[in-house]
Every structure is written in structure tokens, then in C-alpha cells.
């Protein structure tokens, strides 16, 4: 077997294994005959691990020792504890058990477990999550595991099976725990992922979550179980039952109009399809918004699409297709079984991936060993196969390579082997067919020789472009900006070299790190909006000589098609290379930090609402949308749920909201600044011309000229600086005027009255008033300052800044 | 599947990092040996072949169109194919590559490039074709870019020799003592501003390349050309509406190439090259906004350089000196940066202004009395000198004016505290403005003038004390002398007549006045803080200057603690004893005492 051929869909809820056989994929079922393996694990007291449907069935009976949806925690440091056995497992160890179970299916069907398989991952998986998936594969004994993005696998299965479907498609992949949408194009048999988007924390599980939340509220309302907190260990079995029943109810409503949600002695209520649709609508809208965003970003109209392919079990919920049609304007269909389409696509892709040389089975007795280079899937009717004789070296003189198509209708001319062992053969393919070629060799005398490998397969009519990077990768800088290494959409494999400087001098043999820079993934120019995925680091103890501060370090980051990331650094001053400079460590925020971030965003939203008039129409619309954003309530609910997954989801949602607000803030920046400058020009001119000194007037004139010039050049940072300067000048002039301080003293009086500080500050106010009466205006600022100091510290900033805002 | 990081030998690392050369090195049309008319499908097929060959160490059979640049590796070949599949990216690459099909001189260009023939390339550069097709114009611009970047990195064929220093500066040779010499050649070369050696070649080529591109990007004919190329591509993802997007992408790409090279030059410390690169950006017809955005990442490097100048800790010489030293350092940096950013695209002036503004802010926080010192004013002047922005210069000027006003409003004596109207001393004067004669009577007309001498409460109190020391000394001594004269023991001074006695008492009173004066001076010397003006030092005050300016000559000075208040209340006569009731009473008391003493003496005699 020269190609991998096995494809695994390692899903959040279900997993599946398929094998490519000719042009067809075969799903490998388990003992129960079901090709789907529930991604559930139970660890018994004996330590025995139960995988699949048996484990899932125990979820409501033994929730403490049963786990599902661990894929969502891949790459994090979270561990699941199984008290009965007293053991802890990481998400990748649990995933490895699923993979082992799937490998067993292959062993049962084909006689041996695969040593290599293509494993699918959500497109929006971050690099540490991909890394964790690879580790899981290694733990399961899969030595070579190229990773393939799920929507690409689905697109391959959709476009590459049967008749190749040309056109542009949206692949809507709503899995158990993740959502991905991809814009794919198939042209002349070439499948290309144009762009994709998604949400790593949105899936069928969240559909169940809203049903579960409704049930939980009813339990709480009944008051039979106190406040019914999830964090209370005695409620754990109840919550497990609610979860299982929620999934059951949702699946039931895919076929029936109504069902009863029933957990004896806990809660019972009837749920119909309309109610379910109301509950799910905000989440489905989130997915359709991403679809619309993706189309808009690529300037593709819905009418230009050939269709929308739905992938994943949750898309069987009837309202999903309806909502997609309504919001995106394109008909959503299941062209292939949505539960197994990813595994099928993975298998088809696997058939284009050659086994690493060391893992191929070698034919005994072959005289000549070849290294062959070709594309196993191509649309080229005359491809080239290039090879090298790897054994014996040097190759026997006069050696020639023969290639013959097995239908006997094409024989390639004898290809002479060069002294370095290289050769090249032009082939002719039967179009839209799987072409099998027999490879051979003849010596200088024309005697045939056995070669290894002796067969190659090439599928004509379909090929797959290399996948793009789903999220940008960069390093975080001290000023909260990001230096991007690789941008979203970069074709994988991709590589970038950047130069850094050491921030301190390092002595040879010293401990610590010569370079320590946080790595992040995301799309925001503001570093804190992206997710920290690890660090770029160089251990100081590895350096061979002392290194002064500010020394140059060239770091090369490379990401291959499987999202495998490698980093190398070169220090020119030492002429030394450092390997493995990337360490993944996925950031997980505690609930209180996420809560604080949410509060910050609410404040920003409030401010943006106040200045909505100054924003461009689109940005103002975005602000208004946020005003009624159901996500704020959702985040609050998630934080209350308090488990790791809920907090991560809340964090993700807050980041997303922050980025949208960033865009609303910066989108109309030029317009906003121009309006601000114009308004300030009038106000400041009025004040300064009336009360300013000649120097102030001259300053204002030059500042306005500079601001106008900067605006004309588009130097918006400078415009902002100049606006600040004008504002400061305006304030300076105003603070020289008696009326200003008179007004401010009046304002402070009102504030003191409101805060009940009048008695304490009375004497100061009297002094201030007297000073105003006597026209001793120079005394008033001092009095005002003294009064402000008497305010509580939390109010002090506000009343002080009122000076500025009054000026605004 | 795994991507091996293929690191090239050190010598070519700089070439591999060069974004300008990277544009021509990694373009799909070079790596895949494709014509500009190639379809995406052909590119993918060619990519598969190139990759297969590369993996066994074989190269493509067609010749490399830019043989002096390093070949592409596997990742770059894959990227190239992917670029060809993305229509927008592909059209940008296509326009930045050589179209040898539609250019009538394309064949010659192709041959010159593949053979790295400097002479032929020079000939192509020098070709002047009236009404040349757009592809020829693009090739001209692209060739200049390629050769400019190559010359900058010192690779590839030489198409023109660089000038020597002497040629560039046209040095003036003179004959002295039989020897031909140039006086101060460094100065002459510097003054000529000419480029030297290789620098003149790449700066010229790149300057022309970027300028040609700038012109093309703004021309309607080019937009039509792009539209035609998009139509020829026939990709549904790119239409006629995307012409502007292509032009914007090209503009951004060109800016990024120049900025990328600038970054390398900066990292290598080749400041002269940085200056030339930024100046060619300024001279191009590509809009400033594009350059500003492209140059923005570089700004952080300059920012960090500037941040290093800030003093970590105070030196102990005081804040004014610390800020002065900081401004000196900023000025040095500004002088070094100025040629780098003549077009003001790097925003270096704004950075300097920001630093200067901060320094100015620090200075403004210094206590007022320090601000009135000469050194402070010098440092403030330095702020104005280092600043680039006229508004900061204006701010400094305005601050100077305010300081002068403040100075006027400061106490004339201590110069540290603001004046208090109720504590000011006064100077008054009168001058004759005319006479009228009425028989034996002459009426003289005077103009009276008075001005306050700025004084603070503390100095007024101090002066009052000094004045009291003098008065008390005088009055106490005078009273004692008078009383002694009247009531001394009967046996004493028998030989002295009463008349002589009065004269002696009068002398005694005069001496007492002198003692009072001396006492006042001693007290003034003792209590006036060092560096402050003494109570009697009013001649240098603005009040005196003002009166003099108005034509008054003789001045009368009143340093009583409420002298100016009295003038305000009672007019100038207060100075002459008219208005102060207490003073009048005190004088009347002493006159009364004196009269009473005489009366007593006369009564005793009788």
C-alpha cells in the first residue's frame, strides 16, 4: 500500500473511520454495525475503559465516570478525573482511546490496524489543538497522521465522489462542538478552498445546552432542589440526566412536531418544534451571520453559488436549513450523509497521500528501490512522474525505467536513469479514471528487473489545492500590537522568518530565556483580542557564548498542511541554530477575568452608543446591533454555568464582541476625526478668539493648519495628536477665565450635594464663593482642587475629568 | 507532508530576506517558468512537475529568467501555484512581472534577463518608444525595480557603473606647491549631496522604477489595461469592478517592497540607504497615505530608539538640567533622522515632537520661581529649537510671553511670589507741565504720576519691619534726646545757654534720624534673603521704567506695606503725608511733644 487510504472523522459527538477503495469509500462499522462511534468514554472502577455507545448509555447513570465532548478541551491543560478508578486523563488521552477503538475496526475488517491515517479537525482549530490531536494519534499507535480540515474533507467528499461538481459552494459544517463554514470552488476538477470562517465553540452541544437551560430554570422555579447550582456536586447526576434528555428531545423534534422532556422526580415539560426553533434561533443566526460575512468578504453573491452543503448531525434539525435559506439566500441541502461525509472525504484525501517511505511495505526480493514523486490526484492528462534510485547507489549503468498503464493502452518510453539516480517519465492518463501503472526497470542488456514500488495509482479529473491557514499566527508586542508571522489564508505549507532582538544580555551557562515572546492566533490588530497559544522561546543555557542585549535572533516559523508547527532560530552573533523554539500552551482565562472583560465591553458599547452619530452608517448599525446583543446575556449565563468549556465559550464570545466593537470604533475613524476636528475648530476658535491671548490664537491657527494637513495626508494618528493639542489649548485658555472656575465650583457643589458631602465641604465652598464675590479668581482653582480631594477616590477621577468633558 | 525548513547558506540569507528581490524571485512566473498568459490549471500542472523534480534534485528544463537570484524551494513553489489560483493575487503578480509577449521588445528583454546580460539590459532601459504599449511601459518600470533591488543587494549584472566620490562632487582641484589638492574634500562631497558608487545606481534605478509605477497607477490607460487583463483571465471571482482593488493592491505592494528594504537597511545600520529609500518614496506619485501605512511598522523601531534616550533616573542636577540633557540627545537624534524623512512619510518629525512635547510638559511642572530663572528660559528655547512642528514652536513662544507676563506680575523684590495688589509699594513723580502768571502770582501746573512697585505680602511685611526698625530707632532716640534736654538734672550743662541747648537737641534729633537710617539699613542687610532685592532697590522696577517712559524724572518712593493702596484710596498726595491718618497723628504727636517740652522749659525758667 503506497497511499494512506484511511480517513478518520474525530468528532466532538461522534467519530467515524472510512477507507478509500478505488473510487469509492467504505465506512468501517463497529461490532454493532453502526459506522458512527459515539465519542464517549467511561472508566470503570477496575480501570477498564469503555468507548462508544456503551459508554454513552452510562452518561446519565454514571456521569462522574463517563465523559463526552472532550474534543472541545483539546490543547488545554484540563484533565478529566474518573473517581471510580482514581485516574485522570487529558483530552488527548481520551481522544486516543477513540482512535484506538476506530483502529480496531480496521483491524477487524482488514486484518491490521492502520499505522497512518488522515484525521480531520475543525478548520478553526488553533495550533495547540492540532498539536494535541497529533499527540492523540501517536498515543493510539497511528504513527503518521496528516490533519485535514473538516470542511475541506466534506467538500472533497461532495465534489470528488461520483461526478465532479464544478462551481462555488458553501460548506456549512455544524458539528457537535464546532461550526465551520467554507467557501469552496471546484473548477475543471480542481477543488480550492477560497476562504473560511467559523466558531470553535458553537455546535449541536450548544443546541442541547439551551434546552437544558430551560429545564434547569424550571427545576429552580419549582424550588424542590434549592437553588440547583451546577457547581454543587450533589446536582451532578441531575445535570447529566438533563444533558442526555436535552439531546434526546432535540433529536426527537427533528422528526416529530412535539415531545415531552421528562426526567422523573426532577422536571417534566412538553416541547414543540416552534419552541425549539425559538430557542435555537440566536445560535443559528450566529452561524448564518458568519456565512454572510464570508460571502461579503469574498465579494460573492448568494446567487452566484451552486449550493450549500450541510455537514454534521445538528444540521438535521429542520429549522437550520430554513434559517440558512432565509438569512443567506441559498438553498441548504444534504448532498451526502451529513454524519459520515467528513470521514468519506478524509478517506478520499488519504488516497492522495503517499505513505512515508519507512512505513511502506517492501516487496521481498526487489533489486531496485525507487523514490517516486508524483501527484496521486491530478487534472493534468499528461503528468510527470519523477524518481530516484535509492538502492543500489550508484545505480547500475544503463538502467532504464519502464512504466505501463495496466489497461495496456499506454507504454511510456524507456526513461534512462542519470548517474545520480534521477529519472523522469511523462505519462498519459485516461481522463476521469483511476489509472494504475506498473513500474519496472531494465538493465543495460534489456533484462527486466524487479523494482519497489512496482505500482502507482493516479486519479485523474480531481485534485485538491493546498489548504489555507484558518487563523493568523503572530507574536504579541509590548504595546499590545501583533507582529504577524503568517496571515490567515496563507497557503499551507507556509513559512516566515522574522528578526527579533534579545531584551537582556545573557551570559553563557546562565539559566532563563534569551527570548520569550507570546505567540497568538486570531485576526485582531490588538494583541489582547487574540488567543495566546504558546511562546517562542530560546533557553539561555543553550548558548555557546555570552550574548549582549539587543542581539539579533532570526526566528523561522513554519506550518505544514497538517498545521504542524515548527520553529527554528538562528543567532548570527553566535552562528548558532536553536531547534524547537515553539512551545504551545493554550491560554485559558478564569471566569472572573472573562466577567471583567465583558464589563469593559459593556462600557465601550455605552460610549459608542453615545457617539453613534459620529460613526459611519455601517459602524453605527453595528453598534445598534450590539445594543440588543443577546450574546451579553448568553455570556453571563455561561459564566454562571462555570465549567471550563462554558468559560472558554464565554471568553470566545467576549473576544468576538470586542473585535466587532474595535471595528466599529476604527471603521469610520477618518470620518469621525474629521467631524471631531470640525466641531473643535468652531468651539475652540470661539473660546480662544474671545478669551485667549495673542499667543494662544497663533497656536490655534498653527494647530488647525497642521491638523488639516495631517487629515489630507491620511495621517490619522497625527490628526488625533493635534486634536488633543487643540483640546488642551482650549482647556488652558478656559481655565484662565473666572467664569470657568465659577461654573466648575457650581458643578462641584451639585456633585457634593448629590453625594451628601455638603457638610464636609461647606467651608471650602464658602471660601470659594467669597473669593468669587471679591473677584479673587486666582484663589478659586485651589479651592476647587481641595474640594475634589475631599471626594471619595472613586468619584475623584470622574469629577476631575468633568473639566475635560465640559470642554468637549 | 511535513514542511522542512530549508535554510539557505548565510551568504544568501540577506538575498532571501530582501522583499524587493523576493518579489521577482518568488513570482510564480519565474518559479514555474510560466508565460503571463498561463492559466491557473497550467500553473498547477507545472507546479506538480516542478515539485516532483525538485524532490529528486532536478530543476525545470526551461531557463531561469532571473538566473542571478536563488531558486525557489518546495514551499515557495507550492505558494507560487496557489497564487496563480487566487485571481487577485495572480493579476498583481502578473503586472509586476515581465510581459514579453505583448511588448515589441519582449524577446530582447527575455534574452537579456535569462543571459544576465548587463549591456543588453542597459540597452533596454535606455529604449525610448513613443506611444509604447502598456506592457512595454510596465516592463520598463519592472526592470528598473528588479535591477535597482539587485544593485542594492549587489547581485546580478551591472547595467551602469556607479560614480566615484570625486565624480559625484565635482571637486575643485587647485595647484599648491606643485601639487594638485582639494581643500576639505569631505566638506565638498557632503555639500554636493551626490550619491556615491553603487548607491547612485540603485537609487537611480529604484527611483525611476517607483516613479514610473506611480505614474502608471494614476493613469486611466493603466486602469484599462488592468481591465483587459482581468477579462483575459476569465475568472468569475474577479471582474471589471475589481480594477480599483488591483490598483490598490499594486500600490500597497510597491510601498511594502520599498519599506521592507528600508527595514533591512535600518537593521544593518546603513542610514544613508534608509534616507535614499525614504526619499524615493516621497518623490513617487504614490499617495502619501499608502506610504504612511506601509512605513507605520518601522515607526516602532524609531520609537524604541527614542525611548532609549529618556533618562532612567534623575542625575541629581535638577529636573531642568535633566530635561536640557534629554533635549540635547533628542536634538542629536533629530538631526540624524531629518535626512531620513524629508518627505515626512516615516512620521519621525511627529515622534520628535512627541518627545519634545513630553519634555516641555515636564518643564511646565517645575515650580514658578524656578521658571523665572534664566536657565529655564534657555531650556525652553531649546524645546522650540528641537521641535519640528510650528505649533510647538508657537507654544514655546506663547509660554515665553506668559512667563514675561508672570515676571511682571511677580514681586519685584523677591521675584518668587506673585504680587499682591494690597501689598505693593509705590513710586510717584510729578513734572511741571506749564506756568501761568497772574501779576505777582505764578501758578505752576504739574502732572502727577504714580505706579505700583510689584510686591508680595511677605516682602511687604519684611519691608514694614525694616521701616519700623528705622522709625523706632529714630523716634526712640529723638524722644530720649528731647526729654533729656528738657528734664536733665539742674546742675548739668549750666554753662550752656538755652539757645545753644536747643541747637544741641536739634543736632541730637538729627543724629537720631541718622541712627534710624543706619538701623534700617542694618536690618535690611540682615533680613533680606540672599539673591533678593533690598527694600530700597526700586529704581530697576517696571514702575520706574514706566514713569520714566512717560517723561517723569524725579521719583518718590513709598515702601510702606500699603503704599499703593493708599495711593489708590487718596491719590498721589498720600505719598506726601496727606492721606495716612496714623502718620499725621504720629507727626502731630511728636510736634506737640516738642512744643510741650519748649513750653515746659520756658515755664521752668520763669
Describe the structure.
The complex is a heterodimer of chains A (808) and B (606). Chain A is an alpha+beta fold and 808 residues long. In chain A, the strands form nine sheets. In chain A, strands 1, 2, 3, 4, 10 and 11 form a six-stranded mixed β-sheet that branches. In chain A, strands 18-17-12-13-14-29 form a six-stranded mixed β-sheet, sandwiched between helices. In chain A, strands 20, 22, 23, 25, 26 and 28 form a six-stranded mixed β-sheet that branches. In chain A, helix 5 (204-222) runs antiparallel to helix 7 (273-297) and helix 14 runs antiparallel to helix 15 (694-713). With 606 residues, chain B is mainly alpha-helical. Chain B has three domains: 10-163 and 193-294, no CATH class; 309-408; 457-605, no CATH class. In chain B, the strands form two sheets. Chain B has a three-stranded antiparallel β-sheet. In chain B, strands 1-2 form a two-stranded antiparallel sheet. In chain B, helix 6 crosses helix 14, helix 7 (106-114) packs antiparallel against helix 8 and helix 12 runs parallel beside helix 15. Chain B is rod-shaped and about 150 Å long. The relative contact order of chain B is 0.05.
Amino acid at each position: 500500500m503506497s497511499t494512506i487510504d484511511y480517513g478518520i472523522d474525530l468528532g466532538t459527538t461522534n467519530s467515524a473511520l472510512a477507507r478509500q477503495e478505488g473510487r469509492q469509500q467504505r465506512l468501517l462499522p463497529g461490532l454493532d454495525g453502526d459506522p458512527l462511534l459515539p465519542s464517549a468514554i467511561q472508566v470503570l472502577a477496575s480501570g477498564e475503559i469503555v468507548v462508544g455507545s456503551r459508554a454513552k448509555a452510562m452518561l446519565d447513570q454514571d456521569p462522574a465516570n463517563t465523559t463526552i465532548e472532550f474534543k472541545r478541551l483539546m490543547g488545554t491543560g484540563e484533565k478529566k478525573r474518573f473517581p471510580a478508578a482514581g485516574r485522570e486523563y487529558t483530552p488527548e488521552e481520551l481522544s486516543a482511546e477513540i482512535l484506538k477503538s476506530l483502529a480496531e475496526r480496521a483491524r477487524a475488517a482488514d486484518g491490521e490496524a492502520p499505522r497512518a491515517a488522515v484525521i480531520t479537525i475543525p478548520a478553526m482549530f488553533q495550533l495547540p489543538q492540532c498539536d494535541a490531536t497529533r499527540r492523540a494519534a501517536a498515543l493510539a499507535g497511528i504513527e503518521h497522521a496528516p490533519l485535514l480540515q473538516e470542511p475541506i474533507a466534506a467538500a472533497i467528499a461532495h465534489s470528488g465522489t461520483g461526478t465532479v461538481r464544478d462551481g462555488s459552494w458553501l460548506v456549512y459544517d455544524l458539528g457537535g462542538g464546532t461550526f465551520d463554514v467554507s467557501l469552496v470552488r471546484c473548477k475543471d476538477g480542481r477543488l480550492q478552498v477560497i476562504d473560511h470562517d467559523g466558531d470553535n465553540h458553537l455546535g449541536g452541544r450548544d443546541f442541547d445546552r439551551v434546552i437544558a437551560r430551560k429545564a434547569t430554570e424550571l427545576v429552580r422555579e419549582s424550588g424542590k432542589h434549592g437553588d440547583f447550582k451546577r457547581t454543587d456536586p450533589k446536582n451532578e447526576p441531575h445535570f447529566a440526566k438533563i444533558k442526555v434528555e436535552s439531546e434526546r428531545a432535540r433529536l426527537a423534534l427533528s422528526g416529530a412536531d412535539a415531545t415531552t422532556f421528562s426526567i422523573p422526580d426532577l422536571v417534566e415539560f412538553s416541547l414543540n418544534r416552534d419552541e425549539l426553533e425559538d430557542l435555537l434561533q440566536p445560535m443559528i443566526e450566529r452561524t448564518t451571520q458568519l456565512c454572510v460575512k464570508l460571502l461579503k468578504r469574498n465579494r460573492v453573491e448568494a446567487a452566484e453559488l451552486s449550493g450549500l452543503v450541510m455537514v454534521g448531525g445538528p444540521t438535521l434539525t429542520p429549522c437550520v436549513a430554513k434559517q440558512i435559506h432565509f438569512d443567506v439566500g441559498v438553498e441548504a441541502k444534504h448532498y451526502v450523509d451529513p454524519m459520515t461525509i467528513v470521514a468519506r472525504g478524509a478517506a478520499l484525501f488519504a488516497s492522495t497521500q503517499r505513505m512515508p517511505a519507512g512505513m511502506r511495505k517492501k516487496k521481498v526480493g526487489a533489486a531496485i528501490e525507487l523514490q517516486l514523486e508524483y501527484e496521486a490526484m491530478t487534472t493534468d492528462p499528461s503528468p510527470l512522474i519523477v524518481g530516484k534510485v535509492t538502492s543500489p547507489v550508484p545505480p547500475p549503468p544503463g538502467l532504464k525505467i519502464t512504466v505501463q498503464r495496466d489497461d495496456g493502452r499506454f507504454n511510456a518510453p524507456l526513461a534512462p536513469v542519470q548517474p545520480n539516480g534521477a529519472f523522469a517519465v511523462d505519462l498519459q492518463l485516461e481522463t476521469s479514471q483511476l489509472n494504475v501503472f506498473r513500474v519496472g526497470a531494465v538493465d543495460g542488456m534489456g533484462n527486466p528487473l524487479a523494482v519497489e514500488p512496482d505500482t502507482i495509482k493516479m486519479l485523474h479529473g480531481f485534485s485538491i489545492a493546498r489548504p489555507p491557514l484558518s487563523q493568523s499566527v503572530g507574536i504579541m508586542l509590548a504595546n499590545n500590537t501583533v507582529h504577524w508571522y503568517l496571515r490567515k489564508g496563507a497557503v499551507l505549507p507556509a513559512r516566515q522568518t522574522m528578526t527579533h532582538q534579545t531584551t537582556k544580555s545573557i551570559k553563557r551557562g546562565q539559566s532563563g530565556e534569551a527570548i520569550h515572546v507570546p505567540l497568538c492566533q486570531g485576526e485582531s490588530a490588538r494583541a489582547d483580542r487574540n488567543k495566546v497559544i504558546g511562546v517562542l522561546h530560546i533557553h539561555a543555557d543553550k548558548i555557546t557564548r555570552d550574548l549582549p542585549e539587543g542581539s539579533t535572533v532570526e526566528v523561522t516559523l513554519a506550518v505544514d498542511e497538517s498545521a504542524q508547527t515548527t520553529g527554528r532560530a538562528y543567532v548570527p552573533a553566535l552562528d548558532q541554530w536553536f531547534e524547537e523554539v515553539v512551545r504551545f500552551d493554550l491560554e485559558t482565562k478564569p471566569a472572573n477575568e472573562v466577567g471583567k472583560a465583558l464589563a469593559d465591553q459593556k462600557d465601550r458599547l455605552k460610549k459608542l452608543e453615545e457617539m453613534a452619530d459620529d460613526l459611519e452608517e455601517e459602524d453605527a448599525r453595528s453598534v445598534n446591533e450590539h445594543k440588543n446583543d443577546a450574546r451579553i446575556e448568553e455570556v453571563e449565563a455561561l459564566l454562571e454555568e462555570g465549567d471550563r468549556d462554558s468559560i472558554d465559550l464565554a471568553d470566545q464570545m467576549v473576544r468576538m464582541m470586542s473585535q466587532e466593537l474595535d471595528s466599529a470604533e476604527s471603521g469610520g475613524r477618518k470620518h469621525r476625526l474629521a467631524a471631531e476636528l470640525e466641531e473643535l475648530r468652531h468651539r475652540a476658535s470661539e473660546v480662544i478668539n474671545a478669551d485667549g491671548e495673542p499667543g494662544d490664537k497663533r497656536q490655534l491657527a498653527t494647530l488647525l493648519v497642521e491638523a488639516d494637513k495631517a487629515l489630507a495626508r491620511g495621517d490619522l494618528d497625527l490628526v488625533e495628536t493635534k486634536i488633543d493639542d487643540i483640546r488642551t489649548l482650549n482647556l488652558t485658555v478656559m481655565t484662565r477665565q473666572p467664569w470657568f472656575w465659577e461654573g466648575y465650583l457650581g458643578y462641584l457643589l451639585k456633585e457634593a450635594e448629590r453625594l451628601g458631602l455638603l457638610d464636609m465641604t461647606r467651608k471650602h465652598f464658602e471660601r470659594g464663593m467669597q473669593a468669587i464675590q471679591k473677584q479673587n479668581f486666582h484663589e478659586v482653582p485651589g479651592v476647587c482642587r481641595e474640594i475634589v480631594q475631599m471626594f471619595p477616590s472613586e468619584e475623584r477621577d470622574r469629577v476631575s475629568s468633568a473639566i475635560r468633558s465640559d470642554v468637549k | 507532508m511535513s514542511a522542512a525548513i530549508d535554510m539557505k547558506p548565510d551568504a544568501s540569507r540577506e538575498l532571501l530576506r530582501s522583499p524587493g528581490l523576493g518579489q521577482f524571485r518568488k513570482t510564480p512566473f519565474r518559479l514555474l517558468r510560466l508565460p503571463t498568459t498561463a492559466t491557473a490549471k497550467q500553473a498547477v500542472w507545472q507546479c506538480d512537475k516542478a515539485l516532483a523534480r525538485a524532490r529528486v534534485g532536478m530543476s525545470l528544463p526551461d531557463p531561469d529568467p532571473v538566473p542571478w537570484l536563488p531558486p525557489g524551494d518546495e514551499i515557495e513553489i507550492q505558494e507560487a501555484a496557489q497564487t496563480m489560483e487566487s485571481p487577485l493575487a495572480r493579476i498583481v503578480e502578473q503586472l509586476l512581472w515581465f510581459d514579453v509577449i505583448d511588448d515589441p521588445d519582449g524577446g530582447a528583454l527575455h534574452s537579456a534577463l535569462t543571459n544576465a546580460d548587463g549591456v543588453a539590459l542597459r540597452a533596454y532601459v535606455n529604449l525610448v518608444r513613443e506611444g509604447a504599449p502598456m506592457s512595454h511601459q510596465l516592463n520598463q518600470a519592472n526592470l528598473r525595480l528588479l535591477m535597482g533591488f539587485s544593485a542594492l543587494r549587489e547581485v546580478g549584472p551591472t547595467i551602469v557603473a556607479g560614480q566615484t566620490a570625486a565624480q559625484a562632487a565635482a571637486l575643485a582641484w587647485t595647484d599648491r606647491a606643485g601639487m594638485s589638492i582639494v581643500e576639505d574634500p569631505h566638506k565638498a562631497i557632503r555639500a554636493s549631496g551626490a550619491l556615491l558608487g553603487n548607491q547612485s545606481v540603485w537609487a537611480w534605478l529604484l527611483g525611476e522604477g517607483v516613479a514610473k509605477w506611480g505614474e502608471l497607477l494614476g493613469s486611466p490607460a493603466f486602469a484599462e489595461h488592468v481591465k483587459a487583463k482581468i477579462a483575459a483571465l476569465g475568472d468569475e471571482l474577479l471582474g471589471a469592478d475589481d480594477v480599483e482593488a488591483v490598483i490598490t493592491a499594486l500600490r500597497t505592494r510597491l510601498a511594502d517592497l520599498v519599506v521592507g528594504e528600508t527595514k533591512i537597511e535600518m537593521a544593518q545600520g546603513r542610514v544613508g540607504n534608509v534616507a535614499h529609500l525614504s526619499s524615493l518614496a516621497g518623490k513617487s506619485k504614490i499617495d502619501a497615505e499608502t506610504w504612511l501605512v506601509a512605513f507605520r511598522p518601522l515607526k516602532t523601531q524609531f520609537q524604541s530608539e527614542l525611548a532609549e534616550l529618556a533618562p532612567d533616573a534623575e542625575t541629581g542636577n535638577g529636573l531642568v538640567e535633566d530635561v536640557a540633557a534629554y533635549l540635547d540627545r533628542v536634538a542629536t537624534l533629530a538631526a540624524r533622522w531629518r535626512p531620513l524623512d524629508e518627505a515626512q512619510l516615516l512620521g519621525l518629525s511627529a515622534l520628535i515632537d512627541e518627545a519634545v512635547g513630553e519634555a516641555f510638559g515636564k518643564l511646565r511642572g517645575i515650580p514658578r520661581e524656578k521658571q523665572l530663572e534664566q536657565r529655564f528660559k534657555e531650556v525652553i528655547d531649546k524645546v522650540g529649537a528641537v521641535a519640528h512642528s510650528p505649533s510647538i514652536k508657537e507654544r514655546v513662544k506663547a509660554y515665553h510671553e506668559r512667563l514675561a507676563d508672570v515676571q511682571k506680575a511677580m514681586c519685584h523684590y523677591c521675584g518668587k511670589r506673585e504680587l499682591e495688589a494690597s501689598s505693593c509699594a509705590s513710586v510717584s513723580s510729578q513734572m511741571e507741565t506749564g506756568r501761568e502768571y497772574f501779576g505777582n502770582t505764578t501758578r505752576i501746573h504739574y502732572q502727577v504720576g504714580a505706579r505700583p512697585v510689584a510686591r508680595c505680602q511677605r516682602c511687604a511685611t519684611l519691608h514694614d519691619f525694616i521701616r519700623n526698625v528705622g522709625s523706632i530707632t529714630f523716634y526712640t532716640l529723638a524722644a530720649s534726646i528731647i526729654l533729656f534736654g528738657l528734664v536733665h538734672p539742674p546742675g548739668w550743662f549750666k554753662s550752656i545757654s538755652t539757645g545753644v541747648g536747643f541747637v544741641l537737641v536739634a543736632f541730637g534729633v538729627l543724629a537720631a534720624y541718622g541712627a534710624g537710617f543706619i538701623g534700617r539699613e542694618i536690618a535690611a542687610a540682615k533680613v533680606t534673603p540672599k539673591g533678593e532685592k533690598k527694600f530700597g532697590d526700586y529704581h530697576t522696577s517696571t514702575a520706574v521704567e514706566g514713569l520714566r517712559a512717560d517723561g517723569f524724572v524725579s521719583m518718590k518712593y513709598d515702601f510702606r506695606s500699603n503704599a499703593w493702596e493708599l495711593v489708590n484710596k487718596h491719590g498721589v498726595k498720600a505719598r506726601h503725608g496727606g492721606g495716612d491718618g496714623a502718620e499725621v497723628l504720629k507727626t502731630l504727636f511728636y510736634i506737640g511733644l516738642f512744643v510741650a517740652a519748649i513750653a515746659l522749659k520756658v515755664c521752668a525758667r520763669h
